[in-house]
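Hi V.,

You were right to ask for the full record rather than a summary. Here it is.
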Amino acid sequence: MVEVFVPLLIVLMIVGALIAIETPVMLHSVISLGAVGFLLSIVFLFLAAPDLAMTQIAVEIVTLVLLLKATSRSHQERDVMSPWSVQKLAMGGMLVLLAILSAPMLGELPEFGEPVTDRFADAPSNVYLREGLEKTGAANIVTAVLLDFRGYDTLGEATVLFCAALGALTVLRRDRSNVSRDSGGGTRP
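Predicted structure:
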């Protein structure tokens, strides 16, 4: 299944990236860039890297919100969308729904102060603590985990952050160059 979907998702990511670069409308470019990021998180899930997928989704949501905010042109459109009372009511409803859905999970939480390593004897953290110094030679267990045990994950997460920053800078820089070109001596149609 991975052999079929991952290449298809990569092709869709390339198409989305090309649309983000070539489209003249900034909003379309930002949306295409967001689609590329979300497709990348799905690829990470297919490749059994859920931590990278979660990092990618978190970065993508923040980046998409910031880019949408940066590319919004009119303050009047935001005021027309919905009054403050409707927004507050929707937010309150979402908080109540979140509380109702999370209430059953509170009973499943361990006692305060109970170490997680006691609950799961075969947890990776136990292996890291037991064998970290002898397998890696690193006295700092955090360094051993980040650079030795999970080095590829760390590299992938750094790549996700780099690509998100690079994509945001590319889109914003292109917008700035379009504005300076439009504000030149010529007349606008």
